């Protein structure tokens, strides 16, 4: 009896919708990262891309627990001297909540080509409307 190894070409990918309203940002990101990676499937293979598509709606209504809203920062560097930019999450969630959710999910994916490919299957929306209704996504709780 041989061990089954999934092939990325033979995987049938489904679409899932996750509603982030009233849920912690990190918990929603973990669920999305697991589905993007394919860890919920019985035929999961670590070296193959077995993941599925994820749509996250109501990202603007996601919550941050504790004092993270005031104390947590998103930092990036422009590459020039003195080019450190930082934005606290209160401002980030007010202006670009999709970016905050994408950063959380991207940090939970592997930092290699499989993670990069998985991240392209993520769609985040600030409100309840999304463009992927034709794919008939499955709603997750």
CATH class of the domain at 14-64 and 95-140: Alpha Beta
The CATH topology of the domain at 14-64 and 95-140 is what? Ribosomal Protein L13p, Chain: A
Structural class per helix/strand content?
alpha/beta
Strand content: 15-25%
Please tag this protein with its features.
141 residues, alpha/beta, Ribosomal Protein L13p, Chain: A, 5 helices, 30% helix, 18% strand, globular
Give the structure's gist in a few sentences.
By secondary structure, this protein is α/β, with parallel strands linked by helices. Helix content is 30%, strand content 18%.
Task: Write structural notes for this entry.
There is one protein chain. This protein is α/β, with parallel strands linked by helices. It has a domain at 14-64 and 95-140: Ribosomal Protein L13p, Chain: A (Alpha-Beta Complex), CATH 3.90.1180. The chain is 30% helix and 18% strand. The protein is built from 5 helices and 6 strands, in the order E-H-E-H-E-E-H-H-H-E-E. It has helices spanning 25-37, 68-71, 89-95, 97-108, 113-119; strands at residues 15-19, 53-57, 73-77, 84-88, 122-124, 138-140. The strands form 2 sheets. It has a 4-stranded parallel sheet, with helices on one face. Strand 1, helix 1 and strand 2 (53-57) form a beta-alpha-beta unit. The N and C termini lie far apart (37 Å).
């Amino acid at each position: 009896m041989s061990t089954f190894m999934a092939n990325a070409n033979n995987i049938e990918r489904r679409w899932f919708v996750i509603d982030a309203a009233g849920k912690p940002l990190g918990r929603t990101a973990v669920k999305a990262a697991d589905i993007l990676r394919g860890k919920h499937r019985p035929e999961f293979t670590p070296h193959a891309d077995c993941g599925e598509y994820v749509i996250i709606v109501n990202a603007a209504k996601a919550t941050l627990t504790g004092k993270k809203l005031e104390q947590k920062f998103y930092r990036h560097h422009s590459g020039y001297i003195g080019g450190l930019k930082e934005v606290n999450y209160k401002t980030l969630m007010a202006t670009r909540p999709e970016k905050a959710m994408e950063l959380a999910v991207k940090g939970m994916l592997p930092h290699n080509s499989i993670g990069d490919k998985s991240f392209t299957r993520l769609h985040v929306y600030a409100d309840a409307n999304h463009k992927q209704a034709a794919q008939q996504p499955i709603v997750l709780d």
